[in-house]
Every structure is written in structure tokens, then in C-alpha cells.
Amino acid sequence: MSLPNLAPIPELYVSHESAQKLKIEAGNLVSWDLTPRQICDLELLMNGGFYPLKGFLSEEDYNCVVEDMHLANGALWPMPITLDVSEKFAEGIEPGTDIALRDQEGVILAILSVTDKWVPNKANEAAKVFGADDLAHPAVNYLHNTAGAVYLGGPITGIQPPVHYDFKARRDTPNELRAYFRKLGWRKIVAFQTRNPLHRAHQELTFRAAKEAQANLLIHPVVGLTKPGDVDHFTRVRCYEAVLDQYPQSTTTLSLLNLAMRMAGPREAVWHGIIRRNHGCTHMIVGRDHAGPGKNSAGEDFYGPYDAQELFAKHQSEIGCEMVDFKQMVYVQERAQYEPADEIADKDKVTILNISGTELRRRLREGLEIPDWFSFPEVVTELRRTSPPRSKQGFTVFFTGLSGSGKSTIANALMVKLMEMGGRPVTLLDGDVVRKHLSSELGFSKEHRDINIKRIGYVASEITKNGGIAICAPIAPYTATRRAVREMIEAYGAFVEVHVATSLEECEARDRKGLYKLAREGKIKEFTGISDPYEAPATPELRVDTTGVDVDHCAHQVILKLESMGLIKA
Ligand code: PPS
């Protein structure tokens, strides 16, 4: 087996003096404000984490990567790293243009010298890279609903890395880690990739993996973008720091990786291997369902449980990092210790204990006991701090339905009932009220409706984050926009979608505001249900129809739902 080459890896940064000069000259360039994902990608491009890439992929490289996981020059590269921009921005850009790439505060990070501009076939990218053009896959959803329509490619001139104010001492570039390993004389290093808090079983399996490979261990969690709904990285890092003390001294280190994951299973595992090689690691632990995105829209897994391991093994020599098999560790009560599940000879004579991720979340949600054999007390304390029982968390009730369906009336009744119960502040973001105070300049085109709903989602997510109850009652006619709002809110608390499914005929017959009549006469354009679409939610948490039912009863149905979800106590 070859020993690691811990020589410095090429970075894309220019010298300090050149950077100062470029910063001034860049004042005349067209600027692109990078998205959070693009900032993560750019950081790893510039610091060598994505070596051998020298910038955002050209069209030729993109096609080769999508079709067979290699760059045009034959080097292994499984993930399209592209700069997606809007059609409007792309209009003025031609090959030969230099663009200033800026962070969200306008600070220049790099210059992209555009060599290629093209409109990608996103359905093909989804099918080849993520395995299916299915919006249930978070990266496919991102590709179709968040990423811009046009890709720009070309080499990068790095000016400065994105600034991080949190956990500065725990963030290392590939070259900083390489230097650290050199200094400590570490020659074999096993990387452990993770996006979840670590418990005793993880500590046991990582330590064993390192021991078996006679190597040191790098806990290398992702703190860029992970799967929507994951525990936030601030909490996770505090947990990792607590677990670090459990390893024998100087065998193990912790470093944070600002990667934007795609949850692409097998391709993602290969990508993670290349990134770890670039950070000086010789081995990487690849587990069952590595970087799995969850279920597809038919309720099945996107990838087989061992697909990632198989693809990694196939390309291991090209990756330059050896795979270490992940052993499932379980707790054997009689022996009071963790053992690899497949090495327990007396399985039927002992009691095997395990708590799944779903069960752990349930216990946190409901404030139930989490035993010491499962996790470390410091980790449980941290998790309880950020995930109090659901009855103490903020949440959002999001009504959606046609104009005149009864959303506002039920929402008002619900608000009063919740205020009567007390405990948490309640805010009602009603469609009409929002349009008056937050969105008065907007009309009813798809673009304007989306902006309106995202504003509501943003305010609701802030209320939820701060422990309040947000009740929203817009029409919100588009599935993709409602999903985006769901993702914003679920990072902080529950999102309860209530479809007020009163039929168009009934809404039109009521015509409380006289708008349907005007819409039929063509006096109001783009009217939902008449001359504009309404995409009914397929799987809302609750569906109510107000036809022949009084408001009180509908609001009560919502209350019962909130109780059954543990969000309020009877
Ligand atoms: S959206 O699509 O969610 O942004 O719409 P929303 O902000 O909820 O709409 C609020 C109210 O605007 C009135 N209105 C229209 N609705 C639909 N289409 C058109 N073209 C339109 N023009 C005005 C309508 O009364 C909505 O209120 P509700 O409470 O739903 O009846």
C-alpha cells in the first residue's frame, strides 16, 4: 500500500499583492452574487479540496462528468461543479468575459474567466448523476427549482476565502491538514465523513476502523450544506467536541469541512473519497447507504444499500484513498459493551440493544429518556438544548387553498383558540394582510406569487425559530414554492400544511369578495382557479373541506392534528 504524499496540494489563490490589485480592478467587472451552495463549492475549488479542478466545469468537462464520471482529460470526477446563473444575468455574458464572484455581503472572493456558457439538459443531469429525475431527491429538486437555467464555466483566480466567524480554529484547508499530519508524523489517516451527531456506536466503530487500518482518525464532518432537516452544524460541532474527548489522546483529530453535499449516494461517496485524499487522508470509512437521500416519490430507496461501497471499490485506485468498511455496532447488554453485529456468535443468548435515528428523534421530540449506553451525557444535553420537546418548540401552520375557500376564517379561529391555550406567541400571516404590509408592490404573476410566498415563509421560519407559532393563509398555488417554504421552516420546527379543499364551484358560488364574477368577465387577469393554476397538495398533513361544515369544526380538526403531532398539549 502506498504511503500518503503529504506535499502541498495546488491552490487557486494568487499572492496577497496580486489579490489587492485585483480587488481594485474588479470594481469594473460584472458581479455575480454567489448562492450559499456556490460559496461552498468555490471555497473547496480555491483551497484544493476539489483538486484537480481549476474552476467551474467547462461544457465539455460537464458532459464527460455527467455521462461517465471523468473529466475530458480522463481524470476521475463524479460531481458536476457548475456555476448556475439566471437567464437574465447570462444575457450579457460571453466567453472571454471576466466576472467578479462575490459573497452575500458583496465581498469579492474570486474572478471567473468565462470560457463556456450553455443551457444544460437538467433532466439528463438528474437521471445520470442522481439516478432519477425525481423531485423527491433534494439535489434534483434543487437542480430544477433553485438552480439557474444557464451554466457558466471557466478557470478561477482566487482572491480570498469566504469568511467564517464560527469555529474558526476547527476549520482547515487541505494544506493545513496536510501540514498538521506531517507535523505529528501521521502516515495513515482514516477519514470519517458525517452529517449527524455522533453517539457511542459511532465512536466505537470509528475507533475500531482506525485501529484495524493501524491508522490515526480524522473526524471530518460536513458543516456546509447537508440534507434539509438535519441537526444544525452549530449543535453538531458542540457534540463532536464532546465526543473527541472520548478517544485516546493524540490518536484522533476533528476538522470541519465546508462542503455542500448533494446526497448523491454512490457518486457522492467517490467524490467524498477524492476530497479526503486531497485533505491528506489515506483511508475513508464508507458505510451502508452512504450519503443517501431517503425515499423516492414511489416510497423506495434511490440507491441500493451497498451501491456506494461498490462504486468506491471499483474506482479506489483512481481515487487514491482506500475504503474502510463500516461495521454496524450494537450494544450487548449482558457484556455491557458494543460489538460488531456480524461478529456476535451467541446472538440468541444475549440481549442486543439499538436505538434508530427515527426513535432517537421521537424521544427528543417527546422529551423521553435517552439511555447512557446509547450516547454521551454531554451530547444528549446539547441535543435537548436545540431540540426541546415539540410542545415547547415553535411551529408553522400553513393553510393553502383557492380564494374564498375559507382559509382566513379558519386561520383566525385557530389563532384565537391557540391564544386561549397560551404558552407561545401566535402570529397570523393572512394572504390579504401580507399583501398590504409585506408585498404591496407585487401582482399575481407566477414570479410575484413566488416572491410573496417566500417572504411569508421567511417570516414564518423566523417566528418558528424563535419558539412562536406562525399561521399562514395565502393561496400559495405552486407545489415547488410550498416545498421551499417547508424546507425553510423544518430547519427550526414543524411545518403543518393544511389544504382547505373547498371546491372551485363552492368558492365561486359563495364569491364573498365578488372577485370570481370579475375574473369570469375578464376584468381580473390571472385569477387562481379561473385563469391561473392551482396545484393541490398531494400529501398535506391535513385536508379540510368547508362545504356544509362550520368554521369551529374545521379549526378543531386542526387543533386535533396539532395535538396528535405533539405540538400542543390537550
Ligand atoms: S398568492 O398566490 O398566494 O400569492 O395569493 P395571495 O397573496 O394569497 O392572494 C391574496 C388575495 O388576493 C386576492 N386576489 C387574487 N387572488 C388570486 N388571483 C388573483 N389574480 C387575485 N387578485 C386578487 C384574493 O382575494 C386573495 O385573497 P383570498 O383570501 O385567498 O380570497
TrEMBL record:
Catalytic activity, reaction form: adenosine 5'-phosphosulfate + ATP = 3'-phosphoadenylyl sulfate + ADP + H(+); sulfate + ATP + H(+) = adenosine 5'-phosphosulfate + diphosphate
Family matches, as Pfam families: APS_kinase (PF01583), ATP-sulfurylase (PF01747), PUA_2 (PF14306)
Domain APS kinase: 393-545
Domain ATP-sulfurylase PUA-like residue range list: 8-160
One GO location term (cellular component): cytoplasm
Designated name of the protein: Adenylyl-sulfate kinase
Stretches assigned to the Sulphate adenylyltransferase catalytic domain: 171-385
The protein's enzyme class: transferase
Keywords, sorted A to Z: ATP-binding, Kinase, Nucleotide-binding, Nucleotidyltransferase, Phosphoprotein, Transferase
Residues reported in the UniProt entry to bind ATP: G401, L402, S403, G404, S405, G406, K407, S408
Native source organism of the sequence: Paenirhodobacter huangdaonensis
Protein family membership: Belongs to the APS kinase family.
Primary gene name: cysC
Pathway it works in: Sulfur metabolism; hydrogen sulfide biosynthesis; sulfite from sulfate: step 2/3
Function: Catalyzes the synthesis of activated sulfate.
SUPFAM superfamilies: Nucleotidylyl transferase (SSF52374), P-loop containing nucleoside triphosphate hydrolases (SSF52540), PUA domain-like (SSF88697)
GO biological process terms, semicolon-separated: hydrogen sulfide biosynthetic process; sulfate assimilation via adenylyl sulfate reduction; sulfate assimilation, phosphoadenylyl sulfate reduction by phosphoadenylyl-sulfate reductase (thioredoxin)
Molecular function, one GO term: sulfate adenylyltransferase (ATP) activity
EC nos: 2.7.1.25
